[in-house]
Automatic annotation (TrEMBL):
Recorded topology in the membrane: Multi-pass membrane protein
Keywords (A to Z) from UniProt: Cell membrane, Membrane, Transmembrane, Transmembrane helix
Name recorded for this polypeptide: Putative membrane protein
Superkingdom assignment: Bacteria
Subcellular location, record wording: Cell membrane
Bilayer-crossing regions: 24-44, 64-84, 96-118, 138-158, 170-190, 202-224, 244-264
InterPro entries with a match to the protein in the record: Caa3_assmbl_CtaG-rel (IPR019108)
GO CC terms in record: plasma membrane
Predominant place of localization: membrane
């Protein structure tokens, strides 16, 4: 990646580490939540498979979801979380796993389909109605998902928000939640196997995915060159984090593109019927 400027304009102050007790609690609670989500998914998946073994997500889907949970557990583990608290490169690694790699795996596990298969018929119909509702159609539109995921990166790194998150554990955790939810939303509407209310054709979704690639590349270039950013970290850390964002984001978006193409099915034209005698 070519820097936009030879000198970085980021502040060179070290990040503040969290308090020991608060940091331990901040690490343990998310891991417990991830374990509960994985256990709940497995319970619903088994119930759906018992009802109809021939239909619904198979073992590959379940393995993908559990892989996503494992990635989340890795990103939120004590060593990675401590690295992220003292080094901008660790933060960016954590950001990539939570906001891009784990969401792709979780979405490929088809959690909505698993939930619908395991739920009673009346409850499944209500959930299907929610999926078709106008608010969800707006939220699940690819452009909305793009704004909430890639579009918020300038807000994080070009304002004091990142530095404030490093100072306040609650805000730091809220940032993790935002990365995860917006990443899952984007992966779902672009390439998820689950039904989505506002999902356009493959070409339109590829255009939105290309826009996300452009945003990630632009933001990472600006961070590397020191333009507009407000990150209190040494220059070497900021540039290393920008490189992780640039190349790691490309790999994650390439995986998402593969998942999108894998869901594409050509539209067959109906065969012409012979004219009646």
């Amino acid at each position: 990646m070519t820097p936009a400027m030879p000198l970085l304009q980021a502040a060179g102050h070290p990040m503040h580490e969290h308090d020991g007790g608060a940091s331990s609690l901040q690490t343990v609670l998310p891991l417990v939540a991830v374990a509960l989500v994985a256990a709940g998914y497995l319970a619903l998946w088994r119930r759906g498979r018992r009802r109809n073994p021939e239909r619904g997500p198979g073992r590959t889907r379940a393995a993908a979801f559990l892989a996503g949970c494992a990635l989340l557990a890795l990103a939120l583990s004590a060593p990675v979380d401590a690295f992220a608290g003292r080094d901008f490169r660790g933060h960016m690694l954590q950001h990539l796993i939570i906001g891009m790699y784990a969401p792709v795996a979780l979405v490929l596990g088809a959690p909505i389909t698993v939930l619908l298969r395991a739920a009673p018929a009346a409850r499944a119909r209500r959930m299907t109605g929610v999926l078709r509702s106008l608010p969800l159609r707006i939220v699940a539109h690819p452009v909305t998902a793009l704004v909430l995921s890639a579009g918020t990166l300038p807000l994080v790194y070009f304002t004091p928000l990142y530095n404030a998150a490093m100072e306040h554990p609650g805000l730091h955790m809220a940032l993790h939640v935002h990365f995860l939810l917006s990443g899952c939303l984007f992966a779902w509407v672009i390439a998820g196997p689950d039904p989505a209310p506002s999902r356009p054709g493959v070409l339109a979704r590829l255009v939105v995915l290309g826009a996300a690639v452009a945003v990630h590349a632009t933001v990472s270039q600006l961070i590397y060159g020191g333009f507009l950013i407000d990150v209190h970290a040494p220059i070497a850390q900021v540039r290393g984090g920008a490189e992780l964002m640039y190349y790691g984001g490309d790999v994650a978006e390439l995986l998402l593109a593969f998942a999108l193409v894998a869901t594409w099915r050509p539209t067959r034209r109906p065969a012409e019927r012979p004219a009646p005698a």
